[in-house]
Amino acid sequence: MNLDVDLITHPEIEARLLDPVAGSLDPRLTGTTSTDVLEVFADCIAWNERLNQEGLLHHFWNKHQKGRAGRLEYGAEPECRLRIFFIDDIETEPDCHTNRPYDGHDVQSIALWFQRHFGVSTLFLRGFDSPRNWVTIGSASFMRRSGSGTCLSLEGFYRYPPDFVAPEERRHPPVHVWYSHQLEPSTASTYLIHNCHPGAKQAILSCATSSHFRSLFRPLAVDAFLADCCLQTWAERVEETRKRLIIYEGPLPKELDCSMIANIVEDVYQLQQLLRIIGDLVIDVKDKLNFLVTTLKQRQNARSAQEPHVDTSVAESLEFLRAKNDVLVRWIINYKDRSQVQIDRFFNHAAHQDSALNVGISGMTSKIAISAQKDSSAMITMAALTMAFLPASFISALFSTVFFDTVRDVNGKVSLLVHPQWWILPLVTVPLTIIVFLIWIMWWRVRERTVIEKMPIRMTQRND
Questions:
Q1: Would you list the domain boundaries of the chain?
Q2: Sign of the dihedral through C-alpha 207, 212, 214, 215
Q3: Strand 175-182 vs strand 151-160: parallel, antiparallel, or unpaired?
Q4: Which residues is 88 bridged to in the sheet?
């Protein structure tokens, strides 16, 4: 299904969406989507909930054919000063979806119906066909003019980012808003709000059902409701993050080991990352507020001749929201800096603990060195004593073998007798001594290699 080419007013940015090479535009409201319609008249309102495709077309078909029966006499259809379409993904009954046409329009081609009857921008409808386009689309404002150059309407669209909530909470999707403010000959306004935040929707309905429902006729009053709800939502997110942050700003517990410090630093880092994301999104909200202020000025300039006395209440509300947004941005920056201070604080505490541990290890090392020195002195003493007695021990052991003996002659004189086979002694002892030394050298090398392999870091030499 292609959109109506005749309704394209900015071909330099809209024609690409109808290019078959780029992909045909076929935005549809699926069977699981329903629409709530709020219509505000000069003296009353009309609220219709959960209209599916068939019900939505049937509603406007009856309005054109029969008027609003039961509210006004003679079936007259008064001017609708404000019409808001709330489009949300809500489950509906399967038997409510048919392909029965109304006034020649296919029920499934609801996007084409919005474009033809209300002038909804092709750029805005493109998001229903490819939701990823919502991420890269910006804010837009278009002035519709007649052939003579008269300003007929001010139309545009913008987007609020999705809520960034805790994983256990349900995340609200981004809000997409399209608007059309008639300038000539009437001043009716039409909104199409996709995924409207429940708080903003409830606030708009509360105002519409009160005695002050005519205040919704003010230019961009609905946009101010949406902006206030979005900003309040982010303020609550910042407050929740602040409560988690101040837990770590108190005195440090006495028993704080390395694992606890690592967990705390990781948690504070996640808070800082969350604050950075929220800060970027709040700055995006600030851009939307600036866009609304510019759009309001455009509308006022276009109606300056017909409305010499301009109502400035919405402009004042937007200025208040901009000031509130600036304060929120400053607090987010403050909390980000404070989270970094806490990260540095716990890192310094961990470094202090490591320093204290190193001091203790150094003291123990000095004690070990002193003990080793004492052991070394004792070993030197033992070695000196061994060296002193070693020659005598060697001589006594040598002459105590069977190869040496003493005999006494007839005169009683003692003489040393050497056995003829004395050469057996050096023949056996010298090779055995060499073998013992070889075994000791081999054992030492194996032990040294094993110790090197068990070291966590092995130093290797690189030849240039």
A1: 30-69+78-91+110-196, 214-391, 402-451
A2: negative
A3: antiparallel
A4: 34
